[in-house]
Amino acid sequence: MNILYMGPCMPEYVALVEGLKPQGAVLTALPGGHADIWQALPSAEFLVTLAPVTAQMIAAARRLRLIQVAGIGYEKIDVAAAAKAGVPVAITAGSNANTVAEHVMALVLSLYRRVPYADRTMKAGDWTQLEFYRAGNFELAGKTLGLVGLGNVGRSIVPKAKGFGMNLIYHDVRRL
Q1: Each residue of 81-119: pLDDT tens digit?
Q2: Is 11's pLDDT higher than 70?
Q3: DSSP at 138
Q4: Rounded Cα gap, residues 122 and 169, in angstroms
Q5: Residues 6+ away with beta carbon under 8 Å from 94
Q6: What is the DSSP letter of 16?
Q7: Structure letter (DSSP) for residue 22
Q8: Which contacts qualify for 28-36: CB closer than 8 Å, 24 or more apart?
Q9: What b/e readout covers 111-125, taking b as 16+ CB neighbours within 10 angstroms?
Q10: Beta sheet of 46-49, edge-to-edge order
Q11: Which sign does the torsion angle of CA 106, 111, 115, 120 carry?
C-alpha cells in the first residue's frame, strides 16, 4: 500500500503520520507543490493532503483509491475530476471542532479580559490595576455571545460558553 502525504513536512509531523500508517504501508511525505510529487503520484493508492489536488494530479495517480483531506473543506480538491475518476474524497469533519472552540474561548477571554493590554502595561512597568479595571475588565458571566453558524465548531463552543455562565444567541441556515 502506497500512501502519498502532501502538506507541511515538519519532521515531528511526518514522524506522527509515519507512526499512524498501517503496517507494511509505504509513506512518501512531500511538501505541497514539490516537484517530486509527479514521480510519486503514479504509484500512490491513498493521497493524504493539505495541499491542492488538481485534475492533472488525479489523472497522473492511476492507482489512486482515496483522497483524504487532513482537515475540513473540499475547496482545494478538484472534486469533479475525482468523481469522474471514481476516487472518493473524504474530509475529517469535526475532528478539530473542540480545538477550535477552545481557541475561540481563549480569544474571547483574552480580548474581554484585556490580556494583551495588561501584558503590555505590566512589561512597560506601568501596572495600574485600578485603571485596568476602569478600562473595561469584566466577567463573562451574564454576557451574551453570538455565534454565526452552528456547525461542529459552533456546537462545541456552546457548552464552553455556558460553563462561563454566558447567554448564547446564534444564526444558522437551519434552526435547531
Answers
A1: 999 999 999 999 888 899 999 999 999 999 888 888 888
A2: yes
A3: -
A4: 35
A5: 72, 152
A6: H
A7: P
A8: 28/2, 28/3, 28/4, 29/5, 30/4, 30/5, 30/6, 31/6, 31/7, 32/6, 32/7, 34/6
A9: ebbbeeebeebeeee
A10: 26-30, 2-6, 46-49, 66-69, 89-90
A11: positive
